Amino acid sequence: MSSHHPVNDNRSDVSGTHSANSSSSALLFTYIGQSLLGLPVAALLVAASLRGIDETLLKAAVSLGARDWQVFLNVVLPLSLHGVLSTLGLSFLIAFDEVLVAIFVRLTQIRERSPRYSLPLIFGK
């Protein structure tokens, strides 16, 4: 009789396709959740930045023969760039603040799949 016992008996292999699919879907849901956290703040900041653009500049660009996409690229985007950049920064900070929630959700999913791993081994992958 052999004394060799498989480590993952009746469980999905850590390197198998089932765990890779569940891992990638968990990562996708984490990205979606983190993105949704900053969405309301992002919408408010970008809307405020766009409201600050003087309408006469847009009319002047159109009267000089600019097409809609040229007005957007040459007038709207440069004038709203400070709002877009501050939105990116603030959304990143909001998502970074909630990173512990994402880690705990991820660790719970990993623990359900293979409870024999410890925290340093999970982050070392």
Automatic annotation (TrEMBL):
<dbReference type="GO" id="GO:0055085">
    <property type="term" value="P:transmembrane transport"/>
</dbReference>
<dbReference type="InterPro" id="IPR035906">
    <property type="entry name" value="MetI-like_sf"/>
</dbReference>
<protein>
    <submittedName>
        <fullName>ABC transporter permease subunit</fullName>
    </submittedName>
</protein>
<feature type="domain" description="ABC transmembrane type-1">
    <location>
        <begin position="1"/>
        <end position="125"/>
    </location>
</feature>
<comment type="similarity">
    <text>Belongs to the binding-protein-dependent transport system permease family. CysTW subfamily.</text>
</comment>
<dbReference type="InterPro" id="IPR000515">
    <property type="entry name" value="MetI-like"/>
</dbReference>
<keyword id="KW-1133">Transmembrane helix</keyword>
<keyword id="KW-0472">Membrane</keyword>
<dbReference type="GO" id="GO:0005886">
    <property type="term" value="C:plasma membrane"/>
</dbReference>
<keyword id="KW-0812">Transmembrane</keyword>
<dbReference type="Pfam" id="PF00528">
    <property type="entry name" value="BPD_transp_1"/>
</dbReference>
<keyword id="KW-1003">Cell membrane</keyword>
<keyword id="KW-0813">Transport</keyword>
<feature type="transmembrane region" description="Helical">
    <location>
        <begin position="71"/>
        <end position="96"/>
    </location>
</feature>
<feature type="transmembrane region" description="Helical">
    <location>
        <begin position="28"/>
        <end position="50"/>
    </location>
</feature>
